[in-house]
Write a structure and sequence with these properties.
CATH architecture of chain A: Orthogonal Bundle
Shape of chain B: globular
Largest interface: A-B, 27 and 37 residues
CATH class of chain A: Mainly Alpha
Order of helices and strands of chain A: HHHHHEHHHHEHHH
Number of domains of chain B: 1
Number of helices of chain B: 9
Distance between the termini of chain A: 13 Å
Strand content of chain B: 15-25%
Largest sheet of chain A: 2 strands, antiparallel
Strand content of chain A: under 5%
Number of strands of chain B: 10
Helix content of chain A: over 70%
CATH superfamily of chain B: P-loop containing nucleotide triphosphate hydrolases
Oligomer: heterodimer
Number of domains of chain A: 1
Strand order of the largest sheet of chain B: 6-7-8-3-9-10
Distance between the termini of chain B: 36 Å
Radius of gyration of chain A: 19 Å
Radius of gyration of chain B: 18 Å
CATH class of chain B: Alpha Beta
CATH architecture of chain B: 3-Layer(aba) Sandwich
Amino acid sequence: MRRAATLIPAVLFAVLALLPFLPLGRDGGYVLGLLTRAMIFGIAALSLDLMLGAGGLVSFGHAAYLAIGAYAVAVLDANGLSDVWAVLPAALAAAALFALATGAVALRTRGVNYIMITLAFAQMLYFAAGSLAAYGGDDGYTLSGRTAIFGARLLETPRGLYAATLALLLASYLLCRMLVASGFGRALRGVRQNAVRMQAMGFDPFALRLAASVTAGVICALAGVLLANAAEFVSPAYAAWQRSGDLLIMVILGGAGSVYGAILGAGAVVLTEEALGRFTEHWRLIYGPLLILAVLFLRGGLAGGDRHRV
Amino acid sequence: MSEPALSLRAVCKRFGAVTVADGVSFDVPAGTIHAVIGPNGAGKTSLINLVSGLIRADAGMVLLDGGDISGLSLRRRARRGLLRSFQITAILPEFTVLANVALAAQSPAWGFVRPAARDAALNHAAMAELERCGLAARADHPAGGLSHGEKRQLEIATALAGRPRVLLLDEPLAGAGPEETARLLDLLRGLRGDCAIVLVEHDMAAVFALADTISVLVYGRVIAAGPPEAIRADPAVRAAYLGEDA
């Protein structure tokens, strides 16, 4: 079982790395754009799996961090700053602060209350973003250009953005895998199974969960920065609860707790939506039953219940 | 030097109209076993919960090596070496047996980089406790698949891996078969001297064979305390609890 955990991601990343070199013809830009989007959601889903799969924290407000990353790009763009040295620190610091502040409150609750309170915090952000008249309010904000990398405009081509996204997806994946297997990850997985037992061993469940929330928020903000760049547009919809729900579906469909399953889940959701959307505008009528079938028959998700046991 | 490892001073706890601890006091010197016995509903498990910090006492003090720990949480008491097992087995079912114990050895530290499962020092320490508790052969099994008696052994191994100063055992023999009981008794006997042990147990033969001192608890109140011979002879205890088989 653990062999699959090495093999599947290795094959996946190899294919993603070779794809831009294939003769894709006239559709090249479209294919790369679509896969870039899938990979961006892969990063977001990876971060949510750290909370949900490892920590057992069903956050229904994870899209907030997509919006934080995206609005960091927009706000700095409006003030004439669009280089990665300004954008990344701003986005990650804002996400860490938001995760720390909301986590300190939300993590005092469990179960349904935790779901509701994370949803509430994300909705607060959604409405706050809608009231930012300087950045387009509800209509959103169109960027003047993509983020430069230390002066170089490497992200302007589909291939450049694809390469940057793939590199960050790989980095996020390796980081999450390292974290889940580390002493921190093992303690976090222990807390998910039995928090009282962990306290009786001397662990602090609250601190472990807060550390997981902050880490996940920061990684997801990275996805938000990429999402803003991919669309060259930012709107409050990035923080909408439907988006948080999509992220949960990606993690659960992929197989919570398996790390690489989150990437599979994100890919499956983005590509299925796109394929069905081309076929009919009522694609949700097909998408819904497909999801139900997947939950019924894919126990443990696409990664097949591949979880750490040690 | 003469400080007992664990002292209870007039510990009281009420849940509404029910008094589960009514001025309970006793001392457990280092290296001795103190048993708490009493009929069902006497407040034995509540007492373990009070001492371990899972619930807080309304009044009275709990002292660890002479220091007041009454205000500390379960986690902070655990960090000071006051470790416990649970009556309703509390293990981490998805993890292997070895990982359960290694995690206790790891506590309270957490690193972010090195894979915990390959930490030789932790695994070595965990394996030593599993051997002591007779579970070494099951090290790589998922803990959730163990038999009931094996889970009890795992509970004790987990507590031991935390290097206890004081070990609180809540009915470690409950539900164990005769063979498992014999093995657990050997284990507990072997632990005497390593740490102070507070034992809540229903198996009277085991209690009288193991304990250095015994407190008899009835409705949250200690009605008798002393060495096993004195308890066995005490008329009040015979009337309240031991009945005809004493």
